[in-house]
């Protein structure tokens, strides 16, 4: 019982005792009826007062119980203050996202080609003598650069009833010396349509193993070209893209491409199928510098690739392409489009098979490693051109904190040619060139 309730009960008992005493005294002192009536009225008044106090006490108790059962109200946490860059807007009102990385690369070349990063298609053949009389002149060299750094802008425009966006991305790998600004991606999107320059739909970056070398390994492609593309979903895990793309400069018509992607269940990875079709045109000359005949053949290609996550640590990748009459889509195929037939007035398109397999292993949240192998086999390469290219590599990457990555990678590769003779009319000791390099990388993503 509360103190308030005890106090009320005491007051009620005291009032009744007083009234009873007064009634007894009045009855003993006088029998006057008016006095008795007056006493009765006072008793009734006291009873009414006690009843009112009981009602007030009951109402207060109900209110206390109602307050006790109300849910506890917790003040909402204040919304975080957005950073200046997260709220960046263009003059037209588009939301702008800035991204990119600063990257430093160093490389020691035991054997290889002229320049940093992968040049396996042009490595020195064994025994070849350079213009200064040095055998294998590009061996035992050190190189470093920061020109692989990248800067990009992504845009999302506030257009009612439409999904409008775009991207602009550059690096400093342009020009003959790889030291000028180069446009990588530049496109706009409107709902399912894309217009501009980006990676060809015939390629499958999502099914390639991780590599440090900026020029990427044999068997890989990352050709970026102007295009018009339409993409959409066929289901929750299935998507497609079809488009017309700028291909070889001599072609009269754009290249038609198509790609189908299917995600595995539970986010285990993806499988892709691709196709391309183009009219490959070659402009033959009469030996006097005047064009006299345009030869055309049907060029085409198909590809399939997959990336599958076996568990939280191990991921496997594989990709294969067969291409005929094109030297743009896959790296290290320059000049492997056609050769003239026996008449000298016609062409035979060249074909090749490109493949790459790899495995990536996540040691812990900071460390991961990759090992892979790639190859390109040319079906009917002309004399003096590469007959085959192959390359293997292994790397280890370390993330001490999320935006910072350090990497170490070793690459070994070979190229083989037939009937080779260099510009100095010197025959090498054999027709194989070897690529052997150790690379270091440090990168900060922002």
Please characterize this protein's 3D structure.
Keywords: Coiled coil, Signal. InterPro entries: Bact_OM_Channel_sf (IPR053713), DcaP (IPR045748). Residues 1-28 form the signal peptide. It holds the Pfam family DcaP. Residues 26-63 form a coiled coil. The protein is mainly beta and 446 residues long. It has a domain at 104-145 and 199-445: Porin (Beta Barrel). 14% of the residues lie in helices and 46% in strands. It has two helices and 19 strands. The chain has helices at residues 3-29, 33-69, and strands at 95-111, 141-145, 150-157, 164-174, 180-190, 193-199, 224-233, 238-245, 255-263, 269-285, 291-309, 314-324, 338-340, 347-349, 351-362, 367-378, 386-398, 404-417, 432-445. A 16-stranded antiparallel beta barrel has the order 1-3-4-5-6-7-8-9-10-11-12-15-16-17-18-19. The chain has a two-stranded antiparallel ribbon with strand order 13-14. Helix 1 (3-29) packs antiparallel against helix 2. Residues 25-30 and 70-80 have low confidence and may be disordered.
